[in-house]
Request: fold
Amino acid sequence: MRGHAGAVTDHLRPFRIDVPDAVLIDLRDRLGRTRFPAPAPGEPWQYGTDLSWLSELVGYWADGFDWRTHEERLNGWPQFTTEIGGENVHLLHVRSHHEDALPLIISHGWPGSVLEFVDIIEPLTDPTAHGGEAGDAFHLVVPSLPGFAWSGPTTQTGIGPKRVAEMWAELMARLGYGSYGAQGGDWGALITTWIGTVDPAHAVGIHLNMPLARPTPEEMADLTQREQDAVDAARRYQDDDSGYYKQQSTKPQTVGYALDDSPAGLAAWIGEKFRTWTDCDGEVERSVSRDALLANITAYWVTSTAHSSARMYYEHEHGPRPAPYVEVPTGVASFPAEIFRPSRRWCERNYNIQHWTDYARGGHFAAMEVPDLLVGDIRAFFRQVR
Reply:
């Protein structure tokens, strides 16, 4: 039975992030002893993460980056842990002072974390202080995916996107929310899609910034220019950018040993994806600050969850696919540098599209790159379904 909105039960334990000093000292020591490979031939980034970029990032991570400021910011919001289906779940639960606010669960992906959302939490929970109306307010639930960061490593097999969606439905019930919205990108988009399938009685709407759809053979024969660009981008991804996916969906534990042992290796693995997937013209800091990037990477390091986060790919490849059509009202924010950018007509075969916006800037990490646009789009869609 669902309780009163916002109720905190005995299942929820208050939580604060408090990384031991010894962990940060060890991190700096490891960074200082990094054994870099020889430079690759050819153009920078041609063979992967560029040596000069990484060495500069590693130097700043060791001597200039201050994790405690990011830890303090996260600790400024209420956090909890709870156990669902035998797995630990960490979450931020930030209630609006507007009592009629709509509960909204936001899911990140890989290689993201709850740190992706630090710039959108206050505009969504306190809209009147950030250019919105009281009717735009949300009670936010922002969990770390199972296997990621402070949720800790998963302990069971089968914890893929569908299972996480079921866990999120249980989480929202545990928090006392009888109806709610859901939002996500990357794995968060797939989990949010599954929420529309597994919990339509309580999910009033879903909002995605990476919807899932492919063209039919008939559509492939009659592509618009935007659709042709999307097909070309998907082919480039498959040919030049999908090696990480193959590794993490087949042998995630193997690469996990390296990622959990070498912070420089972890920074190379994640940093290259931020460069490739953001709207940055090849310079990461045009879209995401160096501190924001390192805060996200540090979340993986201090929790030793690079290996377990990679398992989401394996579980997806060996698990179920979503239903062919999601009846729950769906909103989409489509950003030009997104990995996959299907057109509205492709998505309308999979979703009950009620809202769609094509933006001129932004990429895969929209909450970090263009928080103003993402907040505005979330507000606009959910006005239709509150």
Remarks:
- The first helix runs from residue 21 to 32.
- The two ends are 22 Å apart (CA to CA).
- The chain has one domain: 13-23+51-382.
- Confidence is low (pLDDT under 50) at residues 1-8.
